[in-house]
Amino acid sequence: xxxxxxxxxxxxxxxxxxxxxxxxxxxxxxxxxxxxxxxxxxxxxxxxxxxxxxxxxxxxxxxxxxxxxxxxxxxxxxxxxxxxxxxxxxxxxxxxxxxxxxxxxxxxxxxxxxxxxxxxxxxxxxxxxxxxxxxxxxxxxxxxxxxxxxxxxxxxxxxxxxxxxxxxxxxxxxxxxxxxxxxxxxxxxxxxxxxxxxxxxxxxxxxxxxxxxxxxxxxxxxxxxxxxxxxxxxxxxxxxxxxxxxxxxxxxxxxxxxxxxxxxxxxxxxxxxxxxxxxxxxxxxxxxxxxxxxxxxxxxxxxxxxxxxxxxxxxxxxxxxxxxxxxxxxxxxxxxxxxxxxxxxxxxxxxxxxxxxxxxxxxxxxxxxxxxxxxxxxxxxxxxxxxxxxxxxxxxxxxxxxxxxxxxxxxxxxxxxxxxxxxxxxxxxxxxxxxxxxxxxxxxxxxxxxxxxxxxxxxxxxxxxxxxxxxxxxxxxxxxxxxxxxxxxxxxxxxxxxxxxxxxxxxxxxxxxxxxxxxxxxxxxxxxxxxxxxxxxxxxxxxxxxxxxxxxxxxxxxxxxxxxxxxxxxxxxxxxxxxxxxxxxxxxxxxxxxxxxxxxxxxxxxxxxxxxxxxxxxxxxxxxxxxxxxxxxxxx
Length: 636
Prior knowledge:
This protein is an alpha+beta fold. It contains 14 helices and 27 strands. The strands form 6 sheets. The chain has a 15-stranded antiparallel β-sheet that branches.
């Protein structure tokens, strides 16, 4: 029987209450109780060592006061990915700081076997550091580290090292990974658990560090503190490189930028959709997917958001990751592993209970086999955005670009499964046709840039043909764009029409579509992807509101001149941010709770797009400028 979280009986924390940590190779989620409930090593898509978020017996790592599970406050140290939790107990106050350490570049005398992008000055240290400080009174502190390897299937066996009670090594049969737990507390082992307890008095400190490679952890509190400060300064210096507007919503842009950086796999530049797998889109439902992969369609929005905020290095790294794939693969998939893996076979983990009983728990994602005709438009728009930021087209890119445009031309008339990867029958989805238009339109623009007029003319002719086909078959009798050619149903992906410049925002069909979605495809103003009763998505159960789509609506409302309505909706959406400023995939419009995988890159990208739209519209309004297209995307 599913546990009813709304009644307060669930042992699972609300999804939005987790803190997110990253060193750009590994991620972790920390519950308010101080328990690390999700962590996969040595890569963010590896099997979990802590999986309590999916099953309370799948491993965790708690550090905090004895007998108190609810903290007084939690925050990130400003401008960082260092999580600080403050605890109030009957006898004193305690502060815990959690961080995945980042240090200097490690490979000075050898070459990295994992990094394919140009090295920087810093690298992941492969250490989860937790520090404790008693700020007043005295507090009994407990440490309880129980890793469960291979998604909770293999318990750990602990042993001491030559450091006595201050270091333990966790191993499991058949697992090549070893975990070292180093601390200035005294460890003891109880079965698969490493445990410690100590009484801290005012001014006293302790630390523990979990490491999984040959790189040394800190061996004293003083060293631990220095490495924490260095990591905090790294994040602050990284954020300072950006160009973030001085606006009351600046904090949301900064946290979104840090989150996107944290969801980037630094060795390749890949941006994963989320840090988790199988967190449910609806409570107790079956819409549970593994999002620890990179979606090609995210590339357009990622490059736009990163370039807009001034993070060109990260945008370039992701661009070259996509370029590597496009150069390697004749047929581009919709998604890949973080090192470019093609096969992402989906498996069901029947031994896991699931978050609040939501099953199945999946690893891998069968959607990698789907045909989605929007992929060529996403890549071509990415190439176009990259080229506009450089005012030149790299010679390496041009052959790839030509092949992708020709693929769009070859396949645009065929049905597919659409942007939402529905598992029903393929259809002629309107948004897929629009993105094929993007592929040919951007291709023609780039051909003109290269002074190849004949190729530009041929591609533009196809773009015009696709445009005519969509306007003929993808619009209902009331002048509203439809989900696919055989329906009157709405779809939130149609909000992209003005954003990719398929039609100008003052076109009556664009305005009618945006307002129809705002009025008819929403629950308490929050946008649904589609209505399940009108869409063959191959699944059962309800469909929640998608926060990505709600932020798209903000951008689209700005585009059609509805700035006040856009601002009100954006304020509402920003009010739904988690206590730490993070977003999952969906928001329950009834209670405001986050649902789906967490944190979600696409949501934070859409937030950046929406907030920048409003900021620029407000600037024009203050300056008395006439209406003009806002998006710096193609054609603006």
